[in-house]
Amino acid sequence: MKVFTPWTLSFAILMTAPSSRPPTQADAEMSAAASRFLASLRPEQRSQAQLRLDDRERTNWHFVPRSRKGLLFKSMSPEQRQLAERLVATGLSRRGHDTALTIIGLETVLAETDGPMRDPELYYLTIFGDPGARQPWGWRFEGHHLSLNFTSPVTAVPAVTPSFFGSNPNERRQEGAVVQRVLAPEEDLARELVKSLDAGQRKVALLSSRAPADILNGPGRTLTSPEGIGYAQLGELQQALLVRLIKVYLDRYRADVAAEEWGRIERAGLATIRFAWSGGLEPRQGHYYRIQGRSFVLEYDNTQNDANHVHTVWRDAERDFGVDLLREHYLESHRDAGK
């Protein structure tokens, strides 16, 4: 049996004819926004912003402040930046977009203590492939505490993992009052769930009294194995809490993507989902949790800076960088070519 990798798949796809099926609404909106952005660039800017779909940079994701391939927001004109921001908005829900903007804005707060390495303009936009060719393509928006990766097979809802949202500080106070909590539902719903567990359930769900120092499913990591308490071991209200928590992550993205991803989770079986917690149960105590199903994992860690520095990630063994979607497109293209 032939083994497909992102690189062999991408190369094969680039050699196939454009799809005869109409693009999805998601692809139509994203490709139009990406094409307008690319058309606004000077040749030297476009050579930075646009890479091949099979370029290895596509899987070189991270959430730390570092140089990346792509076009830096700082180097864009106001008009170009507006077009870039419109593309980013096509991939996210209103809440997800607002959250991303808030995370970027926190770089100004961090710059007061960390210096110029914290800069809300040190974010990169990268286009992989040709968004106007009716072929699979992708794009990435990335910088400190954000990594948004989209892969569109044109005729199906885009893949959106790996997906990373982080926040530092997550909670801000002025004169003793909380004025901002960026990733609040990710923390509050999970804590409500774990504190609702009875003694027997906690023995299964709690992995350790000490939380890991960071997420375990970060860049370059093989996905963890499911641990903790199973969905079927939860009461009805606890199951509802777990579903709400999962949808907090999915609903960062546009509605058609969120609906498709939830449908995939349901089809795989809610009984396959497990919830695990490590660390303290109270606010400002270092804590960690993981929700894992047949192919996906949602992970949260809040241990740094006195448990006021959150990292969250959504990974998918089948959908990271659109691997299974690209495989399906490749096989379908070859079936159509044989007719």
How would you explain this protein's 3D organization?
- This protein is an alpha+beta fold and 339 residues long.
- The protein has 2 domains: 171 residues, no CATH class; 136 residues, no CATH class.
- Helices cover 40% and strands 20% of the residues.
- The protein has 11 helices and 14 strands.
- The strands form 2 sheets. Strands 1, 2, 3, 4, 5, 6, 9, 10, 11, 12, 13 and 14 form a 12-stranded mixed sheet that branches.
- A hairpin with a 3-residue loop joins β12 and β13.
- α1 packs parallel to α11 and α6 runs antiparallel to α8.
- The longest helix has 21 residues.
- The N terminus is likely disordered.
Shape: globular
What separation lies between the terminal Cα atoms? 23 Å
Report strand %. 15-25%
Radius of gyration: 20 Å
Q: How many structural domains are formed by the residues?
A: 2
Low-confidence stretches: 1-15
Helicity range: 25-40%
**N to C succession of SSEs:** HHHEEHHEEEEEEHHEEHHEEEHEH
Quaternary structure = single chain
